[in-house]
Amino acid sequence: MLPAAFEYASPGTLDEALALLDQHADDGKVLAGGQSLIPLLKLRLASPAFLVDINRIPDLDVLEERDGALVIGALVRHKTAERSSLLANRYAVLAEAAPQVADPLVRNRGTLAGSLAHADPSGDWGSVMLAVDAEFVLRSRSGSRTVKARDFFSGPFSTLLQPNEILTEIRIPARRGPTGGAYLKLERKVGDFATVGVAIQLQMDDGKVGTAGIALTAVGPQNIKATEAEAALKGQTLNDKVIKEAGQLAAKAAEPRADLRGSEAYKRNVVRIFTERGLKRAYERARGGG
Amino acid sequence: MARPITITVNGDKHSLEVEPRLLLVHFIRERLRLTGTHIGCDTTHCGACTVLLDGVPVKSCTVLAVQADGRQVTTVESLAVGGLHPIQEGFKQEHGLQCGFCTPGMMMSSFALLQEKPDPTEDEIRWALSGNICRCTGYMNIVKSVRYAAQKMKAAAAVPVEAGARS
Questions:
Q1: Using CB atoms, which residue from B26, B66, B131 is nearest to A103?
Q2: Long-range CB contact pairs, A25-31, < 8 A, 24+
Q3: What's the pLDDT tens digit per position in A60-92?
Q4: How far apart are CA A6 and CA A38, in angstroms?
Q5: Which position among A7, A22, A169, B115 has the lowest Cβ density within 10 Å, counted as fewest Cβ atoms?
Q6: Was domain B86-158 assigned CATH 1.10.150.120?
Q7: Model confidence over B112-151: pLDDT tens digits?
Q8: What pLDDT shows up at residue A38?
Q9: Do the Cβ atoms of B58 and A10 come within 8 Å?
């Protein structure tokens, strides 16, 4: 399959890329890892007239803690996240999600930021970012703005990202104190879209839940933040009863649709079970149990 | 509009004019006539088109040729140098293929794995090949083939150089 014809530029600086996007705001598109965009071009579900390839822009592959935040640049690939000792040691939910994204070949090219900008409701990173309360830096020629993950997604494959903007940076509050996370995903086979995914982030405070982040993959028109379940956990001691209740609230927040991967009731049940398991796992990690 | 690019494929530089929409796999197969790299699903699922881009295995149906400008591409044709590569020998000895369609991709993913991990466990092999789909074998013999290659390459690396031999 061949994409429809397009013009292409691979600028060497972010400023050039932003200028090009500005110029082609009606029909331009950013190309990062291309693992979602190129298939869309080939299937002609998207036919932008101009592609701005950002792969040759230096310094967009930063992955580090800086100024109280974990910073993930626009060109950080899934593979880099999968292999990062920083993530493995301090950001369990990211470290656990990374190797579950797509397959090894796709992970070698695809980027976290690209996946977020693509905003597939079956995408894993959207849930992770909702759970950890990430924010995204959106740059355009005229400046930059910062948007919370929870405000960023506006529907299936829809976000607040404007056509002349690039998601240049993901920022996640730096880990402090006893924190644990987990990402659980059910898929029929490697590389298939998730049947269900659940991301969990727990910040403990004096033995009780300080804040909890819970977000759901592939069970709604976009990644869903299970705010009622999160609120119910706040200030609680994590016992079986509290965990069970959170599982039920998360299942209630899900809006699954029956398809080849399972019925609505089945998916909702997986959300409930994964939330319970994820909370237990995240709690263990927060207590230093790996 | 066509633009000039230069890609080094298996050590040879190729400077050609291509349309930006040309996929790397088409560049390799149709412009260079290196047909060892196969097009399987054409939808980023199967891994039959796997090649190495600057040493990293990628699906060449999901990379634009212009993105490989100035970079190194390694295809299955590079493996055999004066005889079969241990990976090819492994697939032959252990019956790691039936129809053979997925084999070039399997071999390139295996090659990248063995570069990084010369003695992989079965789990590591299965993990590394999990982006490559085979409809025939059930994967058992593919895993054995990679193990065979690992042993063979390890043995070759361990052979002491004879006294007086030129290096």
A1: B131
A2: A25/A162, A25/A163, A25/A164, A26/A163, A28/A52, A28/A163, A28/A164, A30/A54, A30/A114, A30/A117, A30/A166, A31/A55, A31/B64, A31/B67
A3: 999 999 999 999 999 999 999 999 999 999 999
A4: 12
A5: B115
A6: yes
A7: 999 999 999 999 999 999 999 999 999 999 999 999 999 9
A8: 98
A9: no
A160: left (phi over 0), alpha (psi -120 to 50) or beta: alpha
Of B20, B44, B58, the CB nearest to A39: B44
Domain ranges of chain B: 3-78, 86-158
- ipTM comes to 0.94
DSSP-assigned letter for residue B28: I
**Does the distance separating the beta carbons of A55 and B58 come in below 8 Å?**
no
CB contact under 8 A, A35 and B62: yes
Pick the CATH number of A63-173 from 3.30.465.10, 3.40.710.10, 3.40.50.2000, 3.40.190.150: 3.30.465.10
Please provide the distance, in angstroms rounded to a whole number, between the alpha carbons at the two ends of chain B: 49
Which of A2, A105, A190 is facing B59, going by the closest CB pair?
A105
Q: What homologous superfamily is domain B3-78 in, according to CATH? A: Beta-grasp domain (3.10.20.30)
B158 has pLDDT over 90: no
Residue A77, CB-side half-sphere exposure with 13 Å CA sphere: 20
Cα B135 to the center of its chain, rounded Å: 18
Distance from CA of A35 to the nearest CA of B (A): 6
